[in-house]
Amino acid sequence: MVSRKRPDPAFTSWHVGVAAEAIAAAQFARCGVDVSVQYGADQPEYDLIVASGDRMLKVSVKGSVTGSWGLTQSHLQAGDYHGAIDLWLARHQAKTVFCFVQFRGAEFAEMPRLYLAHPTEVAERLRATAGGTGYTKLFERKVWTNRARGAGTTDEIPKSWLFTPERLQELLERYG
Fold this sequence. Notes:
The chain is of the alpha+beta class. The chain has helices spanning 13-30, 81-90, 119-132, 165-175; strands at 34-37, 48-52, 55-64, 68-70, 96-102, 113-117, 137-139, 141-143, 154-156.
């Protein structure tokens, strides 16, 4: 069960981003791939490059302490969630993957949960959210209440996205 306690206010969004990127880089290195960290803040499209042999992926790392990651809200116009998802997807290149890092409920001495997904997989998951109406956030796990748009549905990240050496290899072979 994931803890519902409020995040530590000292663990700011900047700290979350730094910690998420460092943990992601460490996990990629543990998988035996080369890892290159971009220099400078807020570089476009990706934070890390991972390579194995002649295969390479650009990795966008997204950290969270809330149980979700806001992804498409800047593209939302007139409540068109699917349109926002399409615009978001169009911004990402074929060799880009996402590494989602979730600190919510992870004790200090524990690793946060990590997930790997290609933008097309993320877009598919976002479109299916809230009973297929779509949403701007990717939820680790969300049970929609009776008064919500997705009433009676549960959305969660597919188990196949868990960051494992096998998942990384699958993405490298398919997109790298």
